[in-house]
Design goal:
Length: 368
């Protein structure tokens, strides 16, 4: 079986699950080579996974004629530079979230991909997993009637207690909205459709954070971004959603993610995961009941969106985690930040149509 060859840029914390899944699950893609600013990390990845090539720089990776897709796992502040260079080199690109740190960056990258007739897609791909896809099926099949609203909450105390290098989460391009918002907004638009207006309030509750994880334990981080954001999303369908993200609050479990309809309520699983559980409340039942998951990919399947992009290349279709979705989500996030600064509602200019739902395949790891 011919495989689509991928160059991985960045071998930090998220890279291991990509490498696990690409080497063990997804049969139509392979990692051809890796590179990282910390060469030792790239060397370790190459050795552990038997990767053929170790590039000296990302410029070497994107100039490799054997590479079909560039997988960008760099920090958010570096996304624009890496994606633009890869597109200019004629490569399809799949990037970790977000697409860029500003809406202008995202617009330029999407326009460049279209001009070069290249696929540009990216994370999160959790919406392609069994959990969110099952929720979409239940909504589309009328189990909650007409959707009227949603509430999605991401509550935690930040990443400085466990992440080995958490400083960038509090710098430009970071914060709970830009870091975790993509999971929640991507899930919401796949369930309810596009957003046409947002309103928000935001603040940084603490001007500094102290790292308590190794190896930077004791280092103090200056907070440059909002870490407590409450937003209202107006969907084109007429539904209204509440989105709350924070790094400032102690919380021990997943906060609620609910979709409300005229005939029932759906509890959506954590959109940072691929699986369940999914709960449905209808008036005739009187209580929530757990619903069976109707699709494949319940485990941590990061790389699913990348595999879908590879399949899209051979099937001559757009990938499901496509650039229009990435740009719409980026505009919603940056507009929420803008709304808080201006104390005003902000219209969303990009239009979004829901991506094609997942289709069952006879073989795990091979997509439709």
């Amino acid at each position: 079986m011919a495989t689509v060859k991928v160059a991985m840029i960045g071998t930090g914390a998220i890279s291991s699950i990509y490498l696990d899944n690409i080497s063990q699950v997804f049969r139509e893609i392979e990692i051809l080579g890796v590179t990282d600013l910390d060469r030792s990390r790239a060397e370790q990845a190459q050795q552990k996974y038997g990767i053929p090539k170790l590039y000296n720089s990302f410029e070497d990776a994107i100039s490799d004629q054997e590479v079909d897709i560039v997988l960008n796992l760099t920090r958010p502040s570096e996304h624009y530079t890496v994606i633009k260079a890869a597109l200019e080199a004629g490569k399809h690109v799949y990037t970790e979230k977000p697409l860029g740190v500003t809406f202008d960056e995202g617009q330029e990258l999407v326009a460049l991909a279209a001009q070069r007739q290249l696929l540009l897609g990216g994370a999160p791909d959790t919406f392609l997993g069994a959990g969110i896809q099952t929720c979409r099926r239940l909504i589309d099949d009328g189990y909650i009637g007409q959707p009227v609203g949603a509430a999605a909450f991401m509550i935690c105390r930040g990443h400085e207690s466990w992440h080995p290098a958490p400083d960038f989460y509090y710098q430009k391009g970071g914060g709970p909205m830009m870091d975790m918002g993509p999971y929640y907004i991507t899930a919401l638009v796949n369930l309810l459709g596009g957003v046409n207006k947002v309103t928000s309030a935001a603040k940084a509750s603490f001007s500094q954070r102290t790292i308590t994880s190794e190896p930077k334990k004791g280092q103090v981080i200056d907070v440059e971004v909002p870490t407590y954001t409450t937003g209202i999303l107006h969907f084109e369908s007429g539904a209204i959603g509440t989105l709350f993200t924070t790094f400032d609050v102690y919380y021990k479990q997943q906060a609620r993610f609910e979709v409300y309809g005229s005939e029932g309520t759906l509890i959506v699983p954590d959109p940072n995961t691929f699986g369940g559980p999914v709960y449905l409340l209808r008036p005739e039942d009187g209580d929530f009941r757990e619903m069976p998951l109707l699709y494949d990919y319940r485990e941590n399947s990061r790389g699913l969106g990348l595999a879908d992009m590879a399949k899209a290349m051979s099937s001559q279709r757009d990938c499901r985690a496509h650039s229009t979705q990435l740009l719409h989500v980026l505009e919603v996030m940056t507009s929420l930040e803008k709304s808080a600064v201006l104390d005003a509602s902000i219209p969303i200019t990009t239009r979004y149509s829901r991506t094609k739902p997942m289709q069952q395949s006879n073989v795990h790891g091979i997509l439709d």
